[in-house]
Here is the input.
Amino acid sequence: METVRTVAELRARVASWRRQGERVALTPTMGALHEGHLSLVRLGQANARRVVATIFVNPTQFGANEDLAAYPRDEAGDAAMLEGAGCDLLFAPPVAEMYPPGFVTRVIVDGLTDVLCGAVRPGHFDGVAQVVTKLLNQAQADVAIFGEKDWQQLAVIRRLAADLDIPTRILGAPILREPDGLAMSSRNRYLTPDERAVAPALHRAIATAAASIAAGADPADATLAARAAVLDAGFASVDYIEARDAATLRPIDRFDPGRPARIFAAARLGRARLIDNVPIGTGG
Here is the structure.
């Protein structure tokens, strides 16, 4: 696996594959890789002949008091994992390559970015939309793979790709979980052993809420019970636990089997802010 650090090098490699008639998949990441990220590579391999992974800790999606400086970085270890998974090319640009002097353009997706994590982390999804638009344009891949754990991010990316006529097909990769149900995440490494034992309570609570709503419970009551269960388990705070439409992210006041919906959650445990989501019923 080769590593390139400039847009010109990336485009040259992709162009050479295109001349051979090969399809290309893109798997953007911020590094600190785990098995969930490698599942994105495998889904890319199932949809294209060549897979490009990116590692870029994007500063524009971090707030002033968030963990940009402390965000885990291990490019050598990440590259070894990607190579072992059969990735063809790693694009790992420096910040100056992505945001050169004079860069002023923003990409804003209204509506989808104002709720859930967007309400708690103002400006976060503007940074996500900005960097993903750049990566999609830089790679010009046939497909791009994003994890469903960040479902709101996936919804935002699908919307911007449609609105900006970006031809890359956006695919969601199912959430990978530890045996106890905890969604795999780079931020899980922030957890102490005691916190790690508590962390699966988030998934248990929202799975219980989803089952209750599918059986006819009021979404407000079920999500309130889930919030209480998460706090009782030992989480420091809950940013949100809400039942929303899977596509529009609008709140639901009852479950309609004909309209996919999900439970979305974010909660804080020690240094880690954990997010998760589960479908309500079978169509979420």
